[in-house]
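Comment on the following before class.
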Amino acid sequence: MSSNDDFIRYVIFLKLINGKELTKNVIRKHILYLKELDEKGQLVLAGPFLDYKGGMIIIKAKSFSEAEGIAKNDPFVKETFETFELRKWQLSCEENNHLEKD
């Protein structure tokens, strides 16, 4: 039996700050940070937008507060290259009856 928390993810929208350019060094740090999240089982998906100066990271976290800490510790944010917006997202699937089982 699954709990509602099993269907919660957090979406981090990253936006490049006007006038900033990402450096190879900070990109490398960001990639290492994503790898750490992946090793901990927290990274779900991540990638840049092709039509927008920023990207999106979807993570698993125990709370909004934990997810916010993860976002704030991303090198892109921590080193003031990007800002972030954090959203709590609920998956829709048969298991939580959002797609109504037959």
About this structure: The beta strands are 8-16, 43-48, 54-59, 82-90. The first strand starts at residue 8 and ends at 16.
